[in-house]
């Protein structure tokens, strides 16, 4: 298993280009199931979860080409024939976002068999709201042997009100609704930019959608959709992670190819901590300060402070003067990074969904273990300021959602190197956590 070796203490300076958003690319790739024509997606990130999604679609009969060389970051997908509409457990267990194929498979073929994703490091991750919405649209759903089987001769439009705001639930049912018979109204939808990005692709494919990005989405179902070409949004969480790298090291980093409008809550919080932030339409410049101030965060659905930035912010809070109260409202177990940060010298006390970070704590290098994607990013950030050489094990978690993170960090002066066998996805450890 690959490890990172990181020597802390260097202020990071220079520019980093932001990759496409993993959490946009995954639903957009699944949307190709909805048509027999070719779908071309640009700005796809070169990360492990995308390779997993490629294998998943190919296992069902899709032709999926991930471009390299001049065609890097582009994928061409054609689901002319879906000979085996089954999302098998050995793939789903490594990436719970596989449940995103459920809605499009039922809508396109009238049948879907999807392995239940099971929980993961950060929580139970149920998909009951996906199921409830499909049932409201007329799907018959049976759960047995760890699989969900959904059948519908043709889904019908429905009025769906989500009990809880769910990002992939909104995306899954949006993809079901675009081929349903009649109108679907969905209320209490997720408003994340990834939902809006998916709706933009579906619209180029001929779908009729109103309200994506708001709490109420209205869809007029179509008989068929045609192919399309779409450029994926930049990754707002990758961008936020590198902003904190610049802030925590007291450096000066400019992010390019990003969208500051998708990061308003994070930029506001960093400014509250005393970090200098300057933006243009597609760049963000961050300059750290030696006098970081503590600030409280409470994770909320978009446009609130994103849960996917909570672990990274906590690393910054260890270096801020004063006590920061971190409240995790979205997932029930998203403090896996806390014990590892404490092993590096952080002063953090957890009480249920609240963690109190007492800064400023000098961090010292240690051998630490990555546990899930964003917790792992938090350890990288802490290692960038820890005294000495930190060893981070199980970095395949990071490779799931960050494209060549060590190269991007080295490009701005970080002392980081990867050791171990650089595996391809097929050799990834079976124990890879599901998220
Ligand atoms: C998406 O996961 C993201 N993944 C997650 O990013 C992100 O943390 C999360 O949204 C919240 O923003 C992708 O987009 C692929 P939810 P998702 O459904 O859709 C509960 C990362 O680090 N819930 O919005 O699975 C659920 O348990 C990953 O990139 C139900 O109860 O999250 C949670 O408490 C991690 N029933 C809350 O809703 C359901 O049917 C929000 O979950 C669905 C969800």
Q: What is the CATH superfamily classification of the largest domain? A: Enolpyruvate transferase domain
Question: What is the SS-derived class?
Answer: alpha/beta
**Global shape:** globular
Ligand inventory reads:
ligand EPZ
- Rg, alpha carbons: 21 Å
The beta-strand count equals 24
Cα end-to-end separation:
19 Å
Query: What fold name stands as the CATH topology of the largest domain?
Result: UDP-n-acetylglucosamine1-carboxyvinyl-transferase, Chain
Overall structural domain count: 2
CATH class of the largest domain: Alpha Beta
Report the major sheet.
4 strands, mixed
Strand order of the largest sheet: 22-23-1-24
As a percent range, the share of strand residues is 15-25%
The number of helical elements comes to 14
The CATH architecture of the largest domain can be named as Alpha-beta prism
List low-pLDDT spans. 423-435
Mean pLDDT: 94
Amount of helix: 25-40%
Tell me what the structure shows.
With 435 residues, the chain is α/β, with parallel strands linked by helices. It has two domains: 3-19 and 234-423, Alpha-beta prism (UDP-n-acetylglucosamine1-carboxyvinyl-transferase, Chain), CATH 3.65.10; 22-233, UDP-n-acetylglucosamine1-carboxyvinyl-transferase, Chain (Alpha-beta prism), CATH 3.65.10. It contains 14 helices and 24 strands. It has a four-stranded mixed beta sheet with strand order 22-23-1-24. Helix 5 (128-136) packs parallel to helix 6 (167-177), helix 6 (167-177) runs parallel beside helix 7 and helix 11 runs parallel beside helix 12. The model is unreliable at 423-435 (pLDDT under 50).
């Amino acid at each position: 298993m690959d490890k990172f070796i990181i020597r802390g203490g260097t202020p990071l300076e220079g520019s980093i280009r932001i990759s496409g958003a993993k959490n946009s690319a995954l639903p957009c790739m699944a949307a190709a199931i909805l048509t027999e024509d070719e779908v071309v997606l640009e700005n796809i990130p070169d990360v492990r979860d995308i390779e997993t999604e490629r294998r998943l679609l190919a296992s069902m009969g899709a032709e999926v080409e991930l471009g390299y060389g001049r065609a890097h970051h582009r994928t061409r997908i054609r689901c002319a024939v879906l000979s085996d509409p089954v999302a098998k457990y050995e793939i789903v267990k490594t990436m719970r976002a596989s449940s995103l194929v459920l809605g499009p498979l039922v809508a396109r073929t009238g049948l879907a068999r999807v392995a239940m994703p099971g929980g993961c490091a950060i929580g139970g991750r149920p998909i009951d709201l996906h199921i409830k919405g499909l049932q409201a649209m007329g799907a018959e759903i049976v759960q047995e042997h760890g699989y969900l089987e959904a059948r519908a001769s043709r889904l019908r439009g429905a009025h769906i009100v989500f009990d809880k705001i769910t990002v992939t639930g909104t995306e899954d049912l949006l993809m079901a609704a675009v081929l349903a018979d009649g109108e679907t109204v969905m209320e209490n939808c997720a408003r994340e930019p990834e939902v809006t990005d998916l709706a933009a692709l579906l619209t180029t494919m001929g779908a009729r959608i109103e309200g994506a990005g708001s709490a109420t989405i209205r869809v007029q179902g179509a008989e068929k959709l045609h192919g399309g070409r779409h450029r994926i949004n930049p990754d707002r969480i990758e961008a936020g992670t590198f902003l904190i790298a610049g802030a925590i090291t007291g450096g000066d980093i400019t992010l390019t190819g990003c969208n500051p409008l998708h990061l308003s809550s994070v930029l506001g919080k960093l400014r509250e901590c005393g970090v200098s932030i300057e933006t243009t339409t597609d760049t963000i410049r961050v300059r750290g300060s030696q006098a970081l101030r503590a600030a409280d965060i409470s994770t909320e659905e978009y446009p609130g402070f994103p849960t996917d930035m909570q672990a990274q912010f906590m690393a910054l809070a260890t270096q801020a003067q004063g006590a920061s109260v971190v409240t995790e409202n979205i997932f029930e177990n998203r403090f896996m990074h806390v014990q590892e940060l404490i092993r590096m010298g952080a002063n953090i006390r957890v009480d249920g969904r609240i963690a109190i970070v007492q800064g400023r704590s000098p961090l010292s290098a240690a051998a630490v273990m990555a546990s899930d994607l964003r917790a792992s990013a938090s350890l990288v950030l802490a290692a960038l300021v820890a005294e000495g050489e930190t060893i981070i094990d199980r970095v395949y978690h990071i490779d799931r959602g960050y494209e060549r993170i060590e190269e991007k960090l080295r490009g701005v002066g970080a002392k980081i190197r990867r050791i171990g066998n650089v595996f391809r996805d097929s050799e990834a450890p079976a124990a890879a956590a599901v998220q």
